[in-house]
Every structure is written in C-alpha cells, then in structure tokens.
Write a structure and sequence with these properties.
The structure holds 3 protein chains of 3 kinds. Chain A is mostly helical. Chain A is built from 14 helices and no strands. In chain B, strands 6-7-8-3-9-10 form a 6-stranded mixed sheet, sandwiched between helices. Chain B has a 5-stranded mixed β-barrel with strand order 11-12-13-20-14. The chains are: A mainly alpha, B alpha+beta, C mainly alpha.
C-alpha cells in the first residue's frame, strides 16, 4: 500500500501543481484569469479548429479504411489475419520524428503540383499520416470488437435475407461493434490532439504546436490549457472504460487502455 | 504411513451477513474416503479450505490425528490438496510440479526425483514427466495435480471438485483411479463434489450439506435408500412427491400399496401426508381402467423413463428396465408402488390421494 | 510517444479461422485499399528516409551518412544519452509500475481504484506529451509550485543544480509516463496469476517468499521483461515531452534529427538526420521483435 501513497504523490503532485499554477494570475491574486484568456486567444482557437478538423477527417478515413478491412480479413481471409495485423502494428517501430523526417524530405522533393495538392494545408498534409499513426490502436480495438461477435453467422443471416454488402456493413455489423468503433475513434481523436512532433517539423500550427508556442510567452495560459487537455482526455477514456464494461468485449477493450 | 482421523468440531465461518458454515461437525475415520455433496454455495469449498488452512474459522476447531491444528498455518499442515482446475504451476513440467512439495521440504534432488517418478507412475503418467501443463490434457493435468498432492505423503488428501472440468468419460475413469490409489495408500480423504453420481460411486460415506450444515452422513446406500430428510432425498437421485395416508403400526398407504413409513413419525394414523417415492420404486402397467396416462417416454439406455399424468393433473416419473412392451405415450395405465418403504416428508397440502 | 502498448494483447487465433485456411479466389481484392494506403502513406515517407540515408544529395549511393553518425562525437553522445535515458526510465518505470500494478490488481477488477488508475494510466502513457511537460514546469520549473514550496523550507532547487529543462528533468518527466505504461502492460499478466497457484504452493509447504521465487516470479518474468523492452522502445522514440520541456536543441537523437532535417544546420547534413532515423528504426525494430518473442512465451503460460 506504500506504493499507492507514493504513486499518489508522484502522479497527483504535478497535476495539482498544474491546477494551482494555472489559477495564479499575473496580478498576484488567484482566479480564473488564465482560463478566461484562453477564450480571447484567437491563435489558439484557430489551431484548435484546425486540429479538430484533422481529427474528424482522420477518424472518418481510419474507420472507412479499417473496419471493412478487419471484417473482410476475419470473414474471407483468415489466413492473412496475421499479416494484416503485423502491417497495422508496424507504425509503432517508426518514431514520429522519423516519420516527420520522411515527410519533410518528401515535401522538399515534391513537385509544385503535389505540393499544392497536399502540403498546402495541414488538413491534407497531416491527416494521411495520422491515419497511419492511429492504425495500431484502431486495428486492435476493431479486431477485438469483431472477434467478440459471431461475424459469420451475422453476415450469412443478413445476406440470406437479401442484404447487400453496404447494408451488411452499415446496418448489421456496425451496430454490433459500436463499442469497439467508439474506442477506436476516441483513441484516434486523442492521438491527433496530442501529436506535436510531425506537425511542428512540417511547420503546421496545430493545437499542440500552438500550445507549446503559447508556453513560451504565457506559461500560465499554457498550463491552464494543459490541465484542460488532460482532464478532457481522461474523461474520454474513463467514459470508454464504462461503456466498454457494458459491452460483450469488455475485458479486452478495457485492457487496451 | 499410518492413516489419521479428521475431526471438525462446530466449525463456523461467516462472510459478513452470510453464514457459509454453520457449526459443522464431521468425523472422518482413518483411511476413509468421505464425499461432501451439496448444491452450489452450500459451503463445501469453505469447509475444505478451513481444513487445509487457507482460511480461518470464526468458531470451532479442526483436529487431525487427535491434534488440534486450528491455528497451524497451511504450509505446515501436511495436507495434499487438489483443486478444481488450473492449479499446476505453468512454469514447471509435470515432474517439477510433483517435486515441488519435496523441494519445500528440502529433500535432496535425487530422492525427490525418484519419488516424483514413482508417484507419476502411480497415476499412469510416467511418459509425460517432461511435459508442461499447457502440453497436457485436462485429465492429465488433474492426474499430475493428484500426484503432486500425493508426493508429500500427506496425512490427509483434500479434493475440491477435481473432476468437474473434465468430460464425462474421463471423469468416470479418473474417478476410479483416484479411488484405487486412495485405497492402496489408505489415505484419509475428503472429496468435494456437487455430482451425486460421483459421490455415491466413490465414497465410503457421503455427507450431504445444505446451507452450511451437514444434513446427513452415511454410506452411499443409506443416503440413497434411507434419506434422513426431504432435502437429502431430493438432492440425491430423483424423487416423486405423492400423497399417502398413514395407517396404524407405522405403515403407509401409497398408490394402492402398503409400505413401511420412514422419516418424521409424529403423526396420527389416518393423516394425509406427502410421501417421497423414487421413480424406480413405481410401476406403470397398461390398464384401460387405470387412472393415469403416459405422457412421454424417454429411452435412457439400460432403463426407460416415463412421465405419467394422473387424472388429477399431477405428474410422476417412473423408471423401468428397458424392454419391449412398455406402455406407449397416450396409453392408459395404472400406477403402483413396488418398494418396501417410503419417506414421509410433511403434511399433504394440496395433494389428493391417488387412486390405485 | 509511441502507440506501442497495443501489441500487448496477442489474442489466440480462433480455431475456426485456422480451419478455413486457404485464400478464396478474388477475396484479396478486399484488402487492396488498405494495402495501397499503407504502401503510399507509410511506405512513401519510409522510402524517403531510407533512400535519403543511403544517397548523396546528387543521388549516388553512399555510406557516408552512417559513418558520420558513428564518428561524430555529437551524434554518438546523443545516441548514448538516448540509450541512457531509455534504460534508466524503463527500469524505474518498470519497477514502480509493477509495484503499483500489484497494489491495483489486489483491489479487484471492478473497484473504482482500478478504473481510475486504468484510465488515468491510459491518458498519461499515451496522450500526455506536451500537457505533461507543462505540468512538470508548473511543478518543478523556476516558478513551479514545488520549487516555491521547497524554497519556503529553505531548499533552493535552482542552486542545487536541478533544472527541469535538463536531461535529468526530461528523465523525471519520462518516468511519469513510463510507470503508467508498465501498469497497463503488466496488469493482464498479474490478473493471470491464479489464486490456486498460491494456495497449492502454500499447501505444499511454501512460504510467501517461496511462492514468489518459484512460481510468481518465473511466471511473470517474460511479461515483465517484455514490458521493460516496450518501455525502452517507448522512451527511445519519445520526443514530444522533451521537445516541450527543452526544445529542439535537446541532446537526444530525435532532437538531432529535427535539427538536421529542418535545415538549421548545413543542407547536405540532411542525409545524416535520415541515417539517424534509420538507426532509430533498427533499434526499435530489434526491441519489438524481442518483445514479440517474449510475449508469445508469456501468453502461453497465462491462458
Ligand atoms: N471469500 C468470500 N467472501 C464472501 N463470501 C464467500 C467467500 N467465499 C465463499 N463465500 C460464500 O460462502 C458460501 C459458500 O461458498 P463455498 O465456496 O463454500 O460453496 P461451495 O459449496 O463450494 O459451492 P460450489 O459448489 O459452487 O463450489 C457461498 O454463498 C459463497 O458466496
Ligand atoms: Mg466450491
């Protein structure tokens, strides 16, 4: 039990410090000054919008790409399951900074046309690579969800009743793996909102990049924002742990977090 | 190795409000195998764990060989325990598992190796000594667990549903093997199960537990044929409840037969009572003037079970040796009791005496 | 920070799937989009890194970039620091993580403690990065809460040589996400320890220490070793936290890569940055393969 006390001090210490720090105002009194400043910080607001757009698009592409793949592999290509899984997990051996280096090189070599098409906006430049970064999380949680249901029976039943593949995927499988999809989506969003290395290297001002920059000038505001970020991510994951506990694939999804 | 007696004296264990064991008394003679039988949650495992020392009683004493060991820690109790499943150490092969207890007793390596080989031979697994648990079948794993428990030459062997994770065939076979090893070594054994067939077939005596208490203990025949209470009667085997009328001289009129009444005797002659009768103690004979109809007939191998509906709507189960000519479903039959005695379970509320 | 821990749950293949071996004709079409996507968006950057590392700016094959990374003292020193910080923080994280996980597991699977630690560990292990750095600055920075507090009792952190924007500070911050990562990694293995093993060992005469030494420790060893490897890889790849704490001029390999490819130094040193990148991939790949092998061993026992 000593470890619980130790852990509480080590982990709660910085969190509590951050909260206290964020409540100290430049005028010397305690208050929500740093938080109200957030609302007036146009640069931060703009970067947050950018990041949320990227997060939404990344999640959409990730799901559109991964869910059919996972279902298809389980259903028709079980022999390739291990291969697809290995490929999905591959991005973890590539540190973000190396990914960034590759992209930066690509960017400097790219023709004007390609540059305009992709690298002109953070949305088109970062989204594809964030999908790659999210793949290990996404594949695992979707795969766990799909394994927990009797996929073959569900699909056979729906097909024998005359459903096409889109209907099967959208109306039969999707509702049954809702928890897994939600988990994958949340992890993807959290990842996009936390990724700083690639965006910074490619010189895009996403939310986490702006957060670092804010810290140079207004430490109090940056700390306030950090407190909010941590709290929101934590609540997101806590919510998943409860939702996941109701679902059939509870233990495994819980374990992913 | 001389066998020892086990004596549980008023053993009580509470979990908060719940009384898992309620002043349990139990005597096991040296070298005897007693099966503890009872429904799920009646406290069998709790009793065994108290005996093994994994848990401590809120009241009562545990004595082994006349010595009070209530306060002796589990590691010093010298009992061999076999669990329901998954108790083998996964990081050790079968032989090393079996050697474990001897290693804890600081026996030199060559000796404990020889002993392990010997005990593994006893359970017929010499060829698998080098296999790890995940390479063994469920039945083999339980054999290794048994060998491991026996290797330390325990004074008492405790088995907690050791066969329940196995399929029926392996279960029957291993049950026989456990019994023969136990008899050969003459080791005092407590065998917990919720499978009545298992208990009846393996034990010298069967103890039936109910809500933390011992309802009855006796030889398998006693428990089956002369259950002391209605609970025992219905838990061990199948029972029909029929109405009967008490006659004078302790006899009982049931389904047209006169049987000897057992069970609570404090009733007046002429009183209407509920009587418990085994399916094999009833007989259905095709009879156009009978008062019952065969509703269903199930072939179960050596015997056939019939479900018979009496004209008053109540149902009876009747077993007969399988043969040709048993009444078909839909046939009118008359039902007779063929046994010699029957258990009175209480007053007959709502039951009307069936006509013969 | 990597998304490394996902590897952790290698689920056993379902036997029905195993029986349906063989690829139905035409079925491969279903994974074409996925494969293409990975080829383009993972393969593309990866190709650039590897190609750039092995060629001169003129496009001819060269070993020069790699030999530079081995001979130049600044790169060697960065590699040493990266390795050192990875070893130290994974050992510390591993030690405290296992300890904490034990305490949490004994609290039972549905206890609130378990949920809070579980989800909290998820946040800190995977997504904390920059906010974490700021929390540390708010605690131990020059005007941090703990610094102020210690100042009141007469301890001057700054004078004692401690600086949150130093490698020691980075190390401390890394431990902060290494511990939760270890908790996440080791919890399934701890849950896999069956109470029967302990009781069986006790019944056979083992003390608590005997049980730990002969059963618990050997059973957990592959999982713990695997966890340590993953922690190592995680720290080795990590950059967000140190970037936010120290900035681009941190003496760690990722810092150098960023400096080199951002053109903060001479242009033709771009290739050296990419060579460092290839070396990072090799180190982490080796670690991950070892992890995979250990993991197979661990799950074999804990089924
Ligand atoms: N550690 C415990 N904490 C609280 N209650 C317990 C504990 N162990 C057992 N019980 C309760 O005590 C009662 C008896 O449990 P026990 O395990 O002895 O039953 P059992 O006869 O072995 O049942 P089964 O056949 O299902 O194994 C049950 O109601 C159980 O819920
Ligand atoms: Mg039990």
């Amino acid at each position: 039990m000593a470890i619980l006390v130790l852990a509480a001090i080590f982990f709660l210490g910085p969190l509590i410090s951050a909260i206290r720090f964020s409540l100290e105002q430049t005028n010397g009194k305690d208050g929500l000054g740093n938080y109200t400043q957030l609302l007036h910080n146009a640069a931060l607001g703009g970067s947050l919008v950018t990041s949320l757009e990227i997060a939404a698009l990344t999640t959409a592409i990730m799901l559109a790409l991964m869910l059919p793949t996972v279902v298809w592999v389980r259903l028709r290509l079980p022999r390739l399951a291990l291969l697809v899984e290995s490929i999905s997990v591959l991005p973890i051996v590539i540190p973000p900074i190396v990914m960034a280096a590759g992209l930066a090189t690509l960017q400097s070599h790219a023709s004007a046309g390609l540059s305009n098409l992709i690298f002109s906006s953070p949305l088109t430049a970062l989204t594809p690579v964030y999908v790659i970064l999210a793949m290990p999380f996404a594949y695992r949680s979707l795969d766990v969800g799909v394994r927990a249901i009797d996929l073959r029976t569900l699909v056979d039943a729906a097909r024998s009743l005359g459903a096409g593949w889109t209907t099967v995927l959208g109306r039969v499988i999707l509702p049954n793996v809702r928890t897994a999809v939600l988990t994958a989506a949340s992890l993807t969003v959290a990842l996009v909102l936390a990724e700083v290395v690639i965006a910074e290297t490619l010189l895009y001002t996403t939310y986490p990049v702006e957060l670092v920059d804010t810290g140079q000038a207004q430490l109090g505001v940056a700390v306030a924002l950090s407190v909010l970020s941590l709290a929101i991510t934590w609540m997101l994951l806590l919510a998943i742990s409860f939702i996941g506990n109701r679902g059939a694939s509870r233990a495994r999804i819980g374990r992913l977090l | 190795m001389s066998a020892v007696a086990v004596h549980l004296d008023g053993l009580t264990r509470r979990f908060g409000e719940l009384i898992a064991l309620d002043e349990l008394d139990l005597d096991v003679a040296p070298g005897e195998l007693v099966a503890l039988l009872g429904p799920s949650g009646c406290g069998k495992t709790t009793a065994l764990r108290l005996l093994a020392g994994f848990d401590y009683p809120d009241g009562g004493r545990v004595k082994v060989g006349g010595v009070d060991i209530t306060d002796v820690p589990a590691s010093k109790r010298d009992m061999g325990m076999v669990f329901q499943a998954y108790s083998l150490f996964p990081n050790m092969d079968a032989r090393t598992n079996v050697e474990f207890g001897l290693r804890m007793r600081k026996q030199p390596s060559p000796e404990r190796r020889a002993r392990a080989e010997q005990v593994l031979g006893l359970v017929g697994l010499s060829a698998h000594a080098g296999h790890y648990p995940h390479q063994l079948s469920g039945g083999q794993q339980q054999r290794v667990a048994l060998a491991r428990a026996l290797a330390i030459e325990p004074s008492v062997l405790l088995l907690d549903e050791p066969l329940s994770a196995l399929d029926a065939r392996v279960r029957a076979q291993l049950r026989g093997e456990i019994r023969s090893v136990q008899q050969r070594l003459g080791i005092t054994t407590l065998f917990v199960t919720h499978d009545q067939a298992e208990a009846l077939s393996i034990a010298d005596r069967v103890g039936v537990m109910h809500e933390g208490k011992l309802e009855q203990i006796g030889t398998p025949e006693e428990v089956y044929e002369r259950p002391a209470t209605p609970f025992v009667a219905e838990f061990v085997g199948t029972m029909n409840r029929v109405a009967g009328r008490l006659a004078a001289d302790g006899r009982l009129e049931v389904l047209g037969a006169s049987l000897k009444a057992s069970g609570p005797q404090s009733r007046a002659a002429g009183e209407l009572v509920e009587v418990l009768v085994r399916p094999e103690a009833l007989e259905a004979v095709a009879d156009p003037n009978g008062h019952a109809t065969v509703a269903e007939r199930t072939f179960l191998g050596s015997f056939t079970r019939m479900r018979v509906t009496l004209d008053d709507g109540s149902e009876l189960l009747i077993d007969a040796a399988s043969r040709r000519g048993l009444p078909e479903p839909g046939v009118r039959v008359s039902v007779r009791a063929t046994g010699e005695d029957a258990l009175v379970s209480g007053s007959a509320h709502g039951l009307t005496p069936a006509a013969p | 920070m990597g998304s490394v821990a996902v590897l952790e749950q290698s689920l056993p293949e379902d036997p029905a799937a195993r029986r349906r071996r063989g690829i139905p004709r035409g079925a491969w079409v279903g994974i074409v989009p996925f494969t293409l996507y990975v080829l383009v968006f993972l393969g593309g950057p990866l190709y650039e890194v590897i190609y750039g590392a092995f060629t001169t700016t003129g496009g001819s094959l060269t070993w020069h970039n790699f030999s530079q990374t081995f001979s130049q003292p600044e790169y060697r020193s960065a590699f040493e620091e990266s390795l050192k910080i990875s070893v130290v923080t994974s050992l510390l994280g591993g030690f405290f993580g296992v300890w904490l996980a034990c305490a949490v597991v004994t609290a039972g699977p549905r206890s609130p403690l378990r949920r809070i630690v579980g989800s909290g560990a998820g946040v800190l292990a995977y997504f904390a990065g920059v906010p974490l750095a700021f929390a540390f600055i708010a605690t131990l920075g020059r005007y941090g809460e703990a610094t102020t507090l210690l100042g009141h009792v007469g301890i001057d952190l700054g004078a004692s040589g401690f600086d949150i924007s130093s490698l020691t500070g980075v190390e401390l911050a890394y431990v902060y996400f290494q511990v939760p990562l270890m908790v996440l990694l080791i919890t399934p293995a701890l849950e896999g320890l069956r109470p029967e093993w302990r009781e069986a060992a006790t019944g056979l005469g083992a003390s608590t220490f005997g049980y730990i030494r002969h059963v618990a420790a050997p059973v957990l060893a592959p999982a713990i070793l695997g966890g340590l490897l993953l922690l190592f890889g995680n720290a080795f790849a990590a950059y967000a936290t140190s970037y936010a704490l120290v900035g681009i001029y941190v003496n760690l390999v990722p810092g150098w890569i960023q400096q080199l490819i951002s053109g903060n130094v001479l242009v033709d040193e771009n290739g050296i940055g990419l060579a460092l990148g290839v070396e990072m991939i090799v180190v982490i790949a080796v670690v991950m393969v070892a992890y995979g092998l250990l993991q197979r061993r661990a799950t074999r026992w804990l089924r």
